């Protein structure tokens, strides 16, 4: 089983407008709404790829109930910790005239020590029956920056393979617990090492430095439309994906993580796992909804991903 953890779960809404004029009333012709947050996106895609998955994390209020109800409708198991306050709404406004995207992100509920302790216990119990645990996204207000140390340590103690997909201080602190895999971007790699990165070779060396320093198994960096780079103890890999007509980029990184998690669940070799991750991330870009991968598109793209050692 795969367990995902979303400490700041959300309802993702996307509004489509023919134009987005400021200071005027705009009537929405089309919108999409779905449970979201990075870990929930991972759970949705992992389920679409046929994996058994349980979504966990923190939810609150009526929005939290809507998140759980929508996951029920998707046949995705869940075990959340309930808190006071409302889970956040994340709005993405698409201007169809310009193609621009404007995101409005609510802060979400404030958590207390009781909720943090319960979350750690819940995740540890789920990790006992999980091969992979994916801890993704930002921390809610009230959680200390080093909270992911507790979650990563608890999951590893239960024998799970831990993927940490966070940023900033949450990632920096979480690395102290030695997750098995991280997926930073190039800027985050540079910030973690306190150095500038001028070219791809320097990026690869920096990824290898992180791998050794924190005793990890994989470090993955997405290059957007140019594919991705992955460093393991066995070598360096480049994934090149086929050109597509991009519909949406939100959730592509989460879909990449989901593809990797499913490959680990299936105990596939590194090259096949990297290909699955790249295909899932690319397939998400074909969908208007974040964390949505059509299985047929995924299989087609999987056959077109090129993996090479570098």
TrEMBL record:
GO terms for molecular function: 1-phosphofructokinase activity; ATP binding; tagatose-6-phosphate kinase activity. It comes from the Bacteria. Residues 6-290 form the Carbohydrate kinase PfkB domain. GO terms for biological process: carbohydrate catabolic process; D-tagatose 6-phosphate catabolic process; lactose metabolic process; small molecule metabolic process. It catalyses: D-tagatofuranose 6-phosphate + ATP = D-tagatofuranose 1,6-bisphosphate + ADP + H(+). InterPro entries: 1-PFruKinase, PfkB_dom, Ribo/fructo_kinase, Ribokinase-like, Tagatose/fructose_Pkinase. CDD domains: FruK_PfkB_like. Keywords: ATP-binding, Kinase, Lactose metabolism, Nucleotide-binding, Transferase. It is an enzyme of class 2 (transferase). Pathway: Carbohydrate metabolism; D-tagatose 6-phosphate degradation; D-glyceraldehyde 3-phosphate and glycerone phosphate from D-tagatose 6-phosphate: step 1/2. Its EC number is 2.7.1.144. GO terms for cellular component: cytosol. Belongs to the carbohydrate kinase pfkB family. NCBIfam families: 1-PFK, pfkB. PANTHER family: 1-PHOSPHOFRUCTOKINASE (PTHR46566:SF5), 1-PHOSPHOFRUCTOKINASE-RELATED (PTHR46566). This is Tagatose-6-phosphate kinase. It comes from Paenibacillus rhizosphaerae. The lineage of its organism: Bacteria, Bacillati, Bacillota, Bacilli, Bacillales.
